[in-house]
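agent> fetching stored inputs for the 2'-deoxycytidine-5'-monophosphate docking request
agent> found them:
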Amino acid sequence: MHTDGHGDANAAADSTQPGGEAWRQMTNQLVITIDGPAGAGKTTVSRMLADRLQFRYIDTGALYRGVALGVQRAAVAPDDDERLAFLCQGLELHFVRSPSGGSRLHCGREDIEDEIRTAEISMLASAVSARPVVRRFLLSVQRRLGRKGGAVFEGRDTGTVVFPEADVKFFLDAPLAVRARRRHAEFEGRAAQSLDAVESDMRQRDHNDQSRAIAPLKAAEDAIRINSEGLDPEAVVARMLTFIESRQSSAPGK
Ligand code: DC
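agent> prediction call returned; pasting tokens
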């Protein structure tokens, strides 16, 4: 289960530092969105930012992967809208906090977090995410998750479509070659794909995600753009926190 972001009431009363009590009271209703292409560093940064703020971290890409796994298992064609709609109705996707602190995607009672992380599911998720019927279904799932605030949403359209009114929006990007190298390195020698194959898959997914007719990957007009090339995740998170802080202190009524 997720916590609400309401943390330890004994935190120092004067703590306006990120994660401190005063900071939490000021920010705990916020919805923060982090969008961008694969490999830009969104996951690491979103998790770290959520940790610092004691917010929930919501990986919306995992939801698309969850649908893709359902599609694969039921052998549904990714463009068969009627069967996709039926499949979605039966999927009970939700996040469960793991003992190690992360959150894992479950479908009903089954933990599917590991199964949704294969190269095949990545490609299938990109295909099903172009289907309006799937996006409609996941839109309501995501909005339900965001209702209480106190969450960092990571995805492709969370600042443009899912939460156009989000309090703070970031768009994290980096050149394709940099993103591919990072993704390949994440596998630490266990990569089933060569660096070239990772880069070519990524190029294809970028193209799919940016060119689909519905909710294409793009920065919201009011998003803060950050290029993560040459920045470590701590530096990116520090920039984000500075921005959130300045936004909060200049908010009306503060
Ligand atoms: O972030 P990821 O690689 O786990 O996302 C898997 C796929 O889901 C990706 O190809 C694009 C799609 N996606 C999307 O269309 N909208 C989102 N908000 C998140 C992911």
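agent> quick read of the result: The chain has one domain: 32-245.
agent> awaiting further instructions
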